[in-house]
Design goal:
CATH class of the largest domain: Mainly Alpha
Radius of gyration: 21 Å
Distance between the termini: 19 Å
Structural class: mainly alpha
Shape: globular
Length: 438
Amino acid sequence: MSTTQKSGGWRTNKWIRAAIPALLLHCSIGTVYCWSIFSENIANHIGHTKSATEWAFSLAIFFLGMSAAFLGNVVEKDIHKSSLIATICFAGGMAGTGFFIWYGGNNPGSTLALVGIYVCYGFIMGVGLGTGYLSPVKTLMLWFQDKKGLATGLAVAGFGAAKAIASPIMEALLKNIKEGGIYKMFFILAVAYFLMMFVGHLLLKKPDGWHEPSKDEKKPSIIEVIKTRPILNYVGIWFMFYINITCGLALISQEKAIVKCLGLAGVVGIVSTVSAIFNAAGRLGFSAAADKMKDRNTVYKIIFVMSIALTALVIVTGGIKNGADNTGLMILVLALIMAVNAGYGGGFSNVPTLLSDHYGMGSISALHGITLSAWGFAGLTGNQLATAIVNNFGEVIEVDGYMVNPVGYQTVLYVTLVLYIVALFLSLVFVRPNKAAK
């Protein structure tokens, strides 16, 4: 039976059984990237520094990668179990975060409140993120075998667009719920996202006719699958994915400060929303374009060349330092921000289809999960790398009433430029086209 079944009602409709549930899951878990909207509110409410609470987000991304790596086999065997785990963990972690914010508000400076937020937002939500991210991906590729990139790009775009969709809602909740707005917001969102993800969980289904190996059938291990091609091929994929995320997070984490540096503090929210749209568009656009390419790795070459060129231009022109006084340089820096966001998103959406081209569909969920460990490690290094550079290079000055460090932000670009060049080398030399792509 064809896996692109077009008849048989809603039960065999690829949009209802794959695309819509994928969007419901990814549009929910993607709100993890809204952290910057409320992180300072949390810090102020519980009586801890913003830098202390920032680790909750880093831990969430780390455990996203680790849970995807270790629970990939669960997703491979049973998407209903994995999507239910994702629903319970993500919504439960969000509700738990709200509880510990409430507790911290009644006990300012409490270590228990801070650790509780680490556990709930970092670990529990992180597990929900990893399993929720993986659960619909293979199903999408099975239903849309002729347009795998478009299908996975659509879902992963939902993850990227979640920030643009949820940000104004969260800001409105924080503004309109006066007393205890921050923890009440988490309780409200926990219920809303539980309902969205649970509906996605109920609808998600692999196409009829797809045969998963029975318990008695011997299935090759992930190592055996990886060894079907030169080992450096997979090493190249993992590291270029890791570098793209690290560079993306390094710049995105400083995005608001850079925009203020350009004298655009009044429109920082608009720029943030536009960059989130570019992130989502990159996820959909790059993956859809890759469907028409003989080698999906070409997408990564385009992303890295584009990032290298724009980063080098901003470095040479001193765009961040001089952008406030030069409209052309201001536009150049904004172009870099948008391009990095688009490339960051495109790097995510093309990973599962690139892996399926090189290693087949048999163990794609488990293999994709292992590869997402790169995201987990990048979550610990990207933001922290940029913060360390900004804290140790340059000096803080005042621009339109805001304290910023233009030299520090420029220095971040020197590091990301070198890393992008390394990633391009890996893409060109290690990740070779697979003539027997499946």
